[in-house]
Structure formats: structure tokens, C-alpha cells
Task: structure prediction
Amino acid sequence: MKILFSGIQPTGLLHLGNYFGAVRNWVDIQYDYSCYFSIVDLHAVTIQYDPKVFVGQIFELALGLYSCGLDPEKTKLFIQSEVPGHADLTWIFNTVTPLGELERMTQFKDKARQNRQNINVGLLDYPVLQAADILLYKGEVVPVGQDQVQHIEFAREIARKFNSRYGRTFPECQAKLTKTPRILGLDGESKMSKSQDNYIALLDSRDVVWEKLAPAKTDPARVRRTDPGTPEICNIFNYHKVVTPEEEQQEVAEGCRTAGIGCLDCKKKLLGNLMKVLDPIQERYQELSGKRDYVRQVLDENGAKCRKTAAGTMIEVKEKMGLNPVWKI
Ligand code: SF4
Result:
């Protein structure tokens, strides 16, 4: 089986954007590859965060990911900072990375704009840590959206540079482009996120989901119930596309175009279909919440497995570089 690496940041509650943008895909492919899924806490500390709640957020994310259907027995879900090799390999990769290439990264420019008060070296070095995340496990496949392709090309370039200087060590990882729908927030304008307060959390109850959906933005041209609408430009219809069966989607679209249904009817249908996705996740979350020791134990075991694999890679790297290859697990 090919080795696959992917990471997710512990930035708060899992929401629909995370689920349909990444997590559902992880669940779908978990048996097709040897999967390393990482909660990338070292990446998360490059921007403002609250250390008092951080450790709880990390564990909650693990619970959430297992609740979404990750198989604790099959996938190696682990916490990045519990494997020292990530930071160690980053330093080594720093020595083969031209500064100019990092400065050109689109994500660095965006993040630097958003975090003017804290443009730290970690923000600049983010793609190098990302390359280390993947290559520490000799990852061959990385599922990403289009916006991350540049970083995977960069990781491939680092692997090439290291291999040409020290001998073949790392595979040239490939991006596996995932056809993820773009899930906008309830405002219909920006990406769904907790900080924008435009999200539906995976653990929101039916009542809370409805409180959020009822006032959510629709086709702005559909002012009155009798106005025909255009589902193609309506954010609510985009949500239908990810949870509503095809045939029912067509009925909704037709009802919208002919003003046969109102927006509240349409949202009620959406609520029903959305809860078919959320109910099993929430049931599983309740179940796992009573087994926190078990989840912690699985994370510990996965951390140990990853440290072992990482140690093998680091011994090889250090030997090739003429460094003392002793490496403590
Ligand atoms: S009926 Fe549905 S798809 Fe049409 S505008 Fe209203 S919410 Fe959007």
C-alpha cells in the first residue's frame, strides 16, 4: 500500500466546512492507503492561539475525527508535537531550502497580511515543516485541494534537493487532488470558519442547526415567496449538493426556479438531510465521550508507532549527512 499523509489543525470545533472539505475524504480513503493522519498542533501555534484551551481542543479534534468514521484500529491518527522528528527534520530541510522560494509562497503572503502584528519565522517556514511532516514517513500521496498544490510541489523539490546532495532517501510525493466542494459559511460570502461565526458545527443539535439555517443567506434576488429563484447562485443549494440525494436536489431546484417552494421549505428539506449526516456522528461522539481513556490510549499507541518510523528515517538521514546517527525513540 502507498503511504499517505495528511494533516488538520486543531483550531476549534469541527464544522461542515472541515467535514466536506477534508474529513469525509479521509474516511473514504482510509482503507486504500497506509494512512498517517496528523493533528498538526505545531502548525497551529504559528498564529495567535490560547494555550489554556489548546490541549483540550487537540483531544476534542481527535474525538471528532473518530466520530466522523476514522477507524482507530486502521489509521494512524496522531498528534504532531508528540513526534520530535517533525521539528528535527524541519531543521535539516531548512539547510537545503532557498529563502527566496519560501518568500514567494502564496500562503505566506496571505498569512503575513492577516497577522501583521506577528509575522514570525514559523509562518515563513510553514511549508518546510509541512514537507517534513510528509517525508518523515516517506509519504508518497498527499490529498489536497487546489490551494495546497504549491506546497506539495515544494515538498517534492525539497526531497529532490536532499536526495541530490546526500543520496536517494525520500520519495517525490504526489498531490492527490480531491474534488472537494467549496463550502462557504452561512453568510454565503466567506469560507466557513469558527472565527467568522458563519458555521454549522458537526455537534450542533437539530434546534441549533435550524436557528442558524433559518436566517442564512439565499439567492438575494428572491425577495418574496412568489419570486422565482436561481439555485445555481444560492449558497443553500450548495449545501443541498453535498447532503441531498440527486433526485431530491432536482425537485428542489425546479421548485426554486418556479417559486413552487419557498426558501424556508427548501431549508427544512436541507435540515432533514443534513441531520442524516450529523446524527450518526453525534451518536458516535456520545459513545466515544464515555471512552476517553480508550481514545487517549489509541493516540498514545499511534504516537509511539510514528516515533518509531520517524526514528528510522532520522537515523538514515543523519547517517547520510555525516551526523551522529544515534536517535532516541
Ligand atoms: S428555494 Fe432554496 S435554492 Fe432557491 S433561493 Fe430559496 S433557499 Fe435558495
